[in-house]
Design goal:
alpha+beta, four-stranded antiparallel β-sheet, 12 helices, 11% strand
């Protein structure tokens, strides 16, 4: 058995990096898997070298091991290597070059078409199909599967980045990959070895007290927590050569305007046109 | 650093268990993290003993380390210990006793309310809020976070099971947990030590060739693959003291009728009523 790519930070150091501050939550048990999870960062630049033979199959076996609602397994994944298709996908994603650069590019699919075919073959109408619930189950199945693939990849010293921008035009994604009705690409995933310049610091997250509630949702302390997090994120972005900016400013920039949605205001209509009534 | 809970199967054994057959995919690299991922099984019976102090905080730190779309962090999680609330949640989920039995029960939230409050505090209308895209991002954020928590829990020798049945009545879940508008419970998660009788075999999944496509979606071999998987699943369910049944029969049973949806045909209206226009 290959060894884990070691994470050398202590528990306290890893938590301080993840939360960007010495004020860390009182975490308990710890082990190399948890250390690897805490060490995640998204990487947007890749070396050309391919990972070992069978890496794709290892990642998909990990993905298939995730929970899936009622064992319906309403997800699939496409490994894209065709340069022409990668170019189209990169264009849909607003010119993200790493889609063409990484040695493994995966498109994760919410896929109820398998059930549709099963129903047709068995001569049964599946009454549950046209509902939002069924699409949501498929999207969540795809997310649980892909996250297992991410964890597996990072444990092997590979880096990853999710490409939500495929949702800028899910109809063109479907055309490019020959998707039948009842299948939608919910996001992409780059996998490969990080280019040296591309591996930034671990990005600090909101304090645990902001996202973890006990018995009842309570956001009373949120304004102070957000102000402190804005300072952390401003410092983080300056250190990592992005424009210095607070979290508040980035949130407003990302969802403040219709332009920033990059066409995703049409996602509902597009998903319906791909065979999900979303009733 | 605590050690991993060891998984003793070899790569070949683990893949054979996961796919329920000796016809396994040509997986390559392997390590203890991947072995732990492959060993997943959902557990519906728990011992009463609590995990070590700080386990909840460790799991949430792992969750916060997952990727999140544009760092929006549109998820939250509620740890529920109040017996009265656990009883209501178990009832919503159709009487799943393990919700009241497990020492850690989490409700994972698609949460755009934090952004709503941010926009209000800053005097800015966030134009991207009312779209299906924004809800979908939040649901996927919650799924990526929760799957990291699952991986962390299982690495510590704990077992888990997702509770999608909270979606039977998301409005009552919101009332029970005091959720503000813009927050919906997308699923629950039990965490704890498996009762001896509750730890079944690893459940076989569809063949890798069924879910993994190359450049183009291709389901030509699916009928034969499904027939073979039906045999495997029939055997698996007989061995594990469920009613013997094929995968095909279980899919039809789960989504074939309106009754089987258990109210989730109203999910779209319910989520809208909780403050997501889903435009």
């Amino acid at each position: 058995m290959d060894s884990l790519t070691p994470v050398t930070l202590s528990k306290t150091e890893a938590l301080a990096a993840r939360y960007g501050t010495a004020e860390i939550p009182p975490a308990g048990p710890w082990n190399p898997i948890i250390a690897s999870l805490l060490d995640h960062r998204s990487v947007r630049g890749y070396r050309p070298d391919a990972p070992p033979e069978g890496t794709l199959e290892t990642l998909v076996a990990a993905a298939s091991s995730a929970a899936t609602s009622s064992n319906l397994q309403t997800w699939s994944v496409i490994s894209v290597r065709d340069p022409a298709k990668l170019a189209v996908l990169a264009e849909i994603a607003g010119g993200q070059k790493h889609i063409q650069q990484c040695p493994i590019f995966l498109v994760w699919l919410a896929d109820v078409s398998r059930n549709e075919r099963l129903g047709q073959d068995e001569g049964t109408v599946l009454e549950g199909m046209p509902y939002l619930e069924t699409f949501l189950v498929a999207a969540i199945d795809a997310a649980l599967a892909s996250q297992n693939a991410v964890v597996a990849a990072e444990s092997l010293g590979l880096s990853t980045v999710y490409i939500g921008a495929l949702r800028n035009d899910v109809v063109r994604v479907a055309e490019t990959l020959g998707l039948p009705p009842g299948v939608v690409g919910v996001f992409g995933l780059c996998v490969g070895y990080a280019a040296d310049a591309a591996k930034a610091e671990v990005k600090p997250r909101l304090p645990q007290a902001t996202v973890l509630h006990h018995d009842t949702y309570d956001h009373g302390a949120e304004p102070a927590q957000r102000a402190a997090y804005d300072v952390l994120m401003n410092d983080f972005s300056r250190r990592n050569e992005m424009a210095a900016d607070t979290w508040t400013a980035r949130v407003i920039n990302r969802i403040g305007t219709m332009k920033a949605l990059r066409g995703r205001d049409r996602l509902s209509a597009a998903i319906r046109s791909l065979g999900f009534p979303l009733r």
